[in-house]
């Protein structure tokens, strides 16, 4: 079997088109322009690419976009000061502070400083709690992107065995919540899991979010399984020339492609969905802040 490749880039483009339609309706029917502020501290090259794309795509769907680039030496107090200003700014309905942050800044303090109603990352305790009990509100961007890709693959996921590899607050934990909501039987695997290969072999759905290049071997995958690869790892690519690099996921793509039913590539899989879902979350928070019902069909 050769797996079908799930085209996250095309899916994200379609989602952005639908978001633009909603933004247009909010503007004409409610005189409301959703606004997103993205904040980056330092000059990690990958983070800079993501933040630039976030700010550009925000503007492209017709939203108000603000980008703050702070120097590597920024103190925690300075960053908290900016967040306080953005919390109070009526033009801004979503605040995203790009992670990771430099060592002198405590990410937990920063996350807790973001007004819960503007938390488009779904990182604050209230948002995490709302997600856990199924209340309306933003859903963590990468897991939401994975869920949308999965929903497109299955009429129903009820009763399927799903394994989430990685237990981060950013991806693993919210992903497991979302799969539970779909009535999957969910296993969370992590660095202490005994016999990971065996756990993966049982799964109809594999979500890999460990951050280690090609860690999930092709022969671990159950024939016909759907594989969602969240990993974005840069490795040396001497075949492309001296000093060249390329991106790979957490799954051995070639090996898994030979047995899986469907698989996301890296790049072009989950990554573009993360940004599109951030824009969808901003429409959600802008709607909720203004007493409007957030559009359900966007991320259904
Ligand atoms: N505050 C947050 N920080 C971070 C998040 C997040 O959701 N919120 N997620 C990750 C990184 N991330 C978003 O910021 C992200 C990663 C990858 C992509 C993406 O489009 N990847 C492309 C490849 C891009 C490249 O060439 O490097 C792809 O996979 O096709 C978008 C967003 C960490 N921080």
TrEMBL record:
Positions of the Tetrahydrofolate dehydrogenase/cyclohydrolase catalytic domain: 6-121
Family annotation (NCBIfam families): PRK10792.1, PRK14186.1, PRK14188.1
Annotated pathway: One-carbon metabolism; tetrahydrofolate interconversion
Membrane-spanning residues: none
Family listed: Belongs to the tetrahydrofolate dehydrogenase/cyclohydrolase family.
Protein name, entry field: Bifunctional protein FolD
Gene Ontology biological process terms from the UniProt entry: L-histidine biosynthetic process; methionine biosynthetic process; purine nucleotide biosynthetic process; tetrahydrofolate interconversion
InterPro entries cross-referenced by the UniProt entry: Aminoacid_DH-like_N_sf, NAD(P)-bd_dom_sf, THF_DH/CycHdrlase, THF_DH/CycHdrlase_cat_dom, THF_DH/CycHdrlase_CS, THF_DH/CycHdrlase_NAD-bd_dom
Function text: Catalyzes the oxidation of 5,10-methylenetetrahydrofolate to 5,10-methenyltetrahydrofolate and then the hydrolysis of 5,10-methenyltetrahydrofolate to 10-formyltetrahydrofolate.
HAMAP family in alphabetical order: THF_DHG_CYH
Catalysed reaction, written as an equation: (6R)-5,10-methenyltetrahydrofolate + H2O = (6R)-10-formyltetrahydrofolate + H(+); (6R)-5,10-methylene-5,6,7,8-tetrahydrofolate + NADP(+) = (6R)-5,10-methenyltetrahydrofolate + NADPH
Record note on quaternary structure: Homodimer.
Biological classification of the source: Bacteria, Pseudomonadati, Pseudomonadota, Alphaproteobacteria, Hyphomicrobiales
Gene Ontology molecular function: methenyltetrahydrofolate cyclohydrolase activity; methylenetetrahydrofolate dehydrogenase (NADP+) activity
Domain Tetrahydrofolate dehydrogenase/cyclohydrolase NAD(P)-binding: 140-287
EC nos: 1.5.1.5, 3.5.4.9
Residues reported to bind NADP(+): 166-168, 232
């Amino acid at each position: 079997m050769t797996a079908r490749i799930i085209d996250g880039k095309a899916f994200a483009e379609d989602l952005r088109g639908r978001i633009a339609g909603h933004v247009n309706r909010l503007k004409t029917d409610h005189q409301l322009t959703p606004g997103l502020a993205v904040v980056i501290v330092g000059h990690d090259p990958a983070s800079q690419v993501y933040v630039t794309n976030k700010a550009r795509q925000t503007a492209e769907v017709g939203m108000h976009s603000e980008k703050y680039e702070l120097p590597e030496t920024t103190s925690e107090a300075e960053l908290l000061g900016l967040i306080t200003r953005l919390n109070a700014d009526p033009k801004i309905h979503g605040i995203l502070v790009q992670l990771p942050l430099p060592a002198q800044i405590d990410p937990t303090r920063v996350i807790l400083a973001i007004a819960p109603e503007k938390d488009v990352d779904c990182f604050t305790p209230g948002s995490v709690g709302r997600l856990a009990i199924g209340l309306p509100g933003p859903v963590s961007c990468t897991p939401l992107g994975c869920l949308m890709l999965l929903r497109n693959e299955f009429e129903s996921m009820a009763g399927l065995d799903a394994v989430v590899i990685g237990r981060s607050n950013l991806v693993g934990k919210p992903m497991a919540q979302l799969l539970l909501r779909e009535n999957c039987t969910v296993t969370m695997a992590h660095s202490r899991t005994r016999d990971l290969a065996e756990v993966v072999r049982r799964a109809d759905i594999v979500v890999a979010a460990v951050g280690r290049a090609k860690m999930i071997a092709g022969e671990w995958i159950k024939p016909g399984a759907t594989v969602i690869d969240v990993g974005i790892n840069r490795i040396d690519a001497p075949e492309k020339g001296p000093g060249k690099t390329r991106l790979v996921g957490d799954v051995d793509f070639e090996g898994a492609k030979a047995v899986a039913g469907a698989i996301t590539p890296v790049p072009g899989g989950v990554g573009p969905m993360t940004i599109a879902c951030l824009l969808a979350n901003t429409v959600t928070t802008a709607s909720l802040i203004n007493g409007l019902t957030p559009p359900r069909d966007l991320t259904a």
